[in-house]
Amino acid sequence: MNRIQTITGLRESPEVDVLVIGGGINGISVFRELALQGVDVLLAEKGDYCSGASAALSRMVHGGLRYLENGEFKLVRESLLERDRLLKNAPHYVAPLPTTVPIFDLFSGIANGAFRFLGLSRRPGRRGALVIKTGLAMYDFFTAARRVVPTHKFRSRAETLKVWPAINPAIRNSATYYDAWVSHPERLGTEMLRDTMKEKPFARALNYARVSLGDASLVLNDGLSGETVAVKPRLIVNATGGWIDLTNSAIGAVAPKLLGGTKGSHLIVDNRELHDALDGHMIYYENEDGRICILFPYLGNVLVGSTDIRVDDPDQARCVDDERQYILQSLSFVFPEIEIADSDIVFQFTGVRPLPISQDSFTGRIPRDHFCELIEGAGIVPPTLCMIGGKWTTFRSFGELAADIVLERLCRQRIVGTENMPIGGGRHFPTAPAKWCAERAAAHGLSLDRMRSLFERYGTA
To answer: Which listed site, 113, 250, 280, 378, has its alpha carbon 20 to 30 Å from 223?
Structure first.
């Protein structure tokens, strides 16, 4: 169903079972879940699909090693399961990533971890070998039944410096484990949207469409044509991430402040010396303030991040000079002899994490788990289900959670699951990609380089 047909259909019949507001990865996920159950669902996104936090993540698809320190074991277990599912369902975009933690002490972090686990206030410092070893052992334990990626490995100082000679010589040990990374998160989101609308043509989605409260109903404002059309859902899913509170206000949903988002800024650095020094690994390290930072090879450059700063207005979130200096300073601790010039920074981006409101003085302690908050309807405003928190890695399970709540409200049954459902170009993914590319390059008269480029971009789609 194209845009004109969708708007015309709403003008003729504004009733819809569910209106999902927000076309980021979580909104698309719940849209897919509901459409596959046969629910009449409409998705409205104010800009481009996956243009907010869903395009500004660290590119990590991970279990969340540091969340173990906060006692978020359920989140880590769930995240690892969803990571492994993405490695299987979207192998054209999600791939294993060897991740190395430089270790500078043996016992550091034990007291901090204990204090935080007990719920006491304590600002973190660097973690020592014992804390990291414990965390990685739990990581391996949680994935023992699947074993999709290799188990962790510890290295001595000498072994570490042999592999990474440019790393800070004060290092004591290093530990390597595997997580995953996503090359094009926004494409994965749009492929999931396209898959859903192809499978269920009745499902409707509009970008550049804002929802507001009108005199007699909610109103959909088409940002391309300038038209407005009434929309009358039985239930709303607010999946606007950092914009949740602003969206509730715009649609007349009476709710307390739910979000306390923080912005995370990243840099893309074009420095061959740094790129080669990583030897294909992500370096997962800590700054002096205890904030976790990362750097890893990304599409020929190096991705470095990130910050964690409270932000009130997500539309005003920008990477500022202080953040650039913070990130570069943290990098200089790990690779002290590698100089990064301002001209090496070829791109920077910022996303707002949709974290729940919190009074914690240290943003790193705010829970990263996800949950839904239901706001009962009043007048012409129907009940609104707000999707709060969450990580990109867990978008499928978060969408499943929200959809199950909606299905219960609508007295509907789930008829299909998405746990093992391939996404876009991840379908029929070849076990021998090089052979697959060579055969298709020959069949279609393309150069092998061109075929490889198309395969990396779109998979088998």
So the answer is: 378
